[in-house]
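Task: complex structure prediction.
Instruction: return structure tokens for all chains below.
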Amino acid sequence: MNRIAMLGGLIAGLGFFFLPILNLKPNRLASGTSFNLLEFQGDDRYLMLFLLALIPIVLSFRNDAESRGWMLVGSGSLLFLLTLILPAGAGANLLLDPEAYLGEGAFIRNPRILPSGGMVLGLLGAYVTIFAGVRDLARAEVQMWVQAIATWVAPLIAIGLLVNGSFDVYSILVEFYANGAALEQKFVEHLMFVFISLGVGFVVGVGLGLWASRDERVAPVILYAVGIIQTIPSLALFGVLLVPLARLGDRAFLPTLGFFGVSLAIALVIGVSYVLLADREPARLKIVHLLATAITATVPLALFVGVFVSFLFRLANVGFTSGAYDSTTTTIFGLLAAALVTWIVGRWFVKPDGFLRTWLRRANWLLSGATTVAVIVLFVQAAGNSRVLGTVDSVSTLTIRDLGVSGIGVAPALIALTLYSLLPLVRNTYAGLNNVDPAIIDSGRGMGMTPSQRFFQIELPLAFPVIMAGVRNAGVALVGIGTVATVIGAGGLGDFVIQGIVNTSIDQILLGAIPAIALALVLDATLRGLEGIFTSPGIKQVQS
Amino acid sequence: MIEFQNVVKRFPDGFTAVKGLNLKVHEGEITVFIGPSGCGKTTSMRMVNRLLSISEGKILVEGRDNKDFPAEELRRKIGYAIQQIGLFPHFTVLDNIAVVPRLLGWDETRIRKRVDELLDLVGLDPDVNRDKYPRQLSGGQQQRVGVARALGADPPIMLMDEPFGAIDPITREVLQEEFLQIQKEIGKTIIFVTHDIDEAIKMGDRIAILRDGLLEQYDTPDNILAHPKDRFVRDFVGSDRSLKRLGLVRVHELMDTEKVPSVRIRDTVEKAEQVIKEHNVRSAFVVDDDGELRGWVDLDGIRHSPKSLLDAMTEADYHEIGVRKNNTAREALSAMVARSFRITPVVDKSGRLLGSITLKALQDLAEQGWGDEEGNGS
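Output:
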């Protein structure tokens, strides 16, 4: 007995029976006419879908798990593909003579076929059936890779057919062909939102998490603060950033640089004095001192992060979306990537004991150092590159807005997204580091490891899976929240969604939504994969 | 080797955990720090490798003030094992044991050799266990790896903080025995912290009893049991300290090899009767030509079969009536009480009679301490 298979068959069968499978729309905006499977009279092929939906229900009463599994995977895959293919054929027929179906007076312009509830439930039921079959195969202890193939064969064939153009009749693909170039640009923008804010959020969030785990007094303050940020609706946060960033954008570049320098100096003086004096101060003064350090440090830090990141985005955006992959831009990102890779290789692959240890370590330092210097040089160079920045004559007339900071657009979007990414990153870093058994750290200390050896060899590897879970959380959330950035003119996949809502065009909404969903899933899977590769087998959770 | 000179430890909250400790840990010995919780035993130990700073006074390690060494360098020279073991879960057994050698920059071939050597020493097959992760080992195996790790770079000194504390009693006994065997081979200078007086007596060459940050008594286990300095120590070692003391003595140290009431299996009944009366015992042991213990004979038996010793004797297996020469006096006592013997034969592992031990001898040993103390105290 396989109840899941029965469920799959029921979902598909009931969907086919009660819900329309297609909707014929006379144009992009008007609502159209729905068609039930049974309405395609004179063509018995459509009855086949009903029969296919019955098969899993019948199969579910079989007892031998392995043969049942194979039959379920086969019938489910067939159902999956036919649910996509057969209505596509029917839809093509409908489009040959739309007037016949839509009736008098319909304004027919670019008529299109929209998949309806019946098809969605059909696909869902088919997939539940495949899933039930794979579970049977797992129970029959069929090898893992065979199970993987069984799971993916139908979706992969579907993707092949999609690329081949077999589903072009469906409206979402019509929309895709109409907006293909725009989609690519928006997708890249979206990707940039996610990666830049995740990158900055990672540095700031892991830093704050580290600080919180080291200092019990600041931990509640930091955790509370990032928690509060999370409660602000994203739209409100965009709005709140509007005024200060607009003001900031108006300022000239050089005075701002001066202001940055002065506030940095003040923060440094207060911070260093805290480090030097904290042990001798009474507790209450110490807290005031600490708060002063935090507040004074926030201003230059926020300024620097905001301006630098906006500028980076500006560079990247110009590079990607103008189609001219500016050589400076690509070099900067190439070098950043190289530095990251060298660092990771140095830290994880070359264990402190590994083969050729000393030389690889030296090479690692050398490479990381060289790439850092190169990035800084190129950054300065690009700041003076008028082609990237638009029409700027000299640095003296440069305003902050020229660097990409303004009330609307990318700067506030990136800042808000970065702030949103902080909670999972800070919380997981804090939890990950705090949950390392104190006895383990104590024995590391007792054996004569230095603080940095303890951090890199014990605490970080042990906290790594938890921190990575935070990165995954933040990344997936950012893909979603990033769609809201469109309302302040920052672009991204949200553009399609908002336009679709304004136009009541489901196709447009899906054109934005489906890539966003795919991006979130791929990002999650990729980060999971990285987590798996870099986590020691000694601490891996046993997958159930 | 390690010397505490007026060592004081005050914590930032004002609590003074150690109030002027003076103590010399002897080279190649296990010195046990023991006392009720809060007595400063762990604090004192942790100041040796500067896991805790010293507020006043100093600790000499190998004749030098331990503040003269950089802290990390000092710690790498001192083995460290703790109750929670603290193995790195993301490291294999090999990597765990290799921590200190790698910090010291040993080359990989030397490290591998050393790791295998240590795994053999602690009774784990290197080929089976080298590449396992800690979670794949039992608690006892993990603790063995913990000890091996502390011995990693062959440090002359070891600090052990209740290293067998988190393990079930049976495994703990085994590990204690094994560790004593290992110590016989390696002869490290060890500070061993425990709160378990039985463990202290078993493991320690010397015991330092601490109380409220002060050294209460510092002596060999035997002397502490026999001559507890004051009421606190007496209470601490427990009312059964006489019995504990018997645990320190092996049977062969107490047995009588001359006045043994034994007869040969071919001897006459009369001879047996004579031996029994001569030694003023209830029965005599019967041995065969090889000297192996075969049973015993008493006056009742002789009365029933006055002709033949073979008929008169009661045959018994030497396991059942004898004790082995390596048993502790405490084990001998419990065997005798269980069998209600007043004298019991001592045999070697093949059952040959070596001598005898009397209940009286055990009693005298146990009472030694009490007697002295009463003489001193009143």
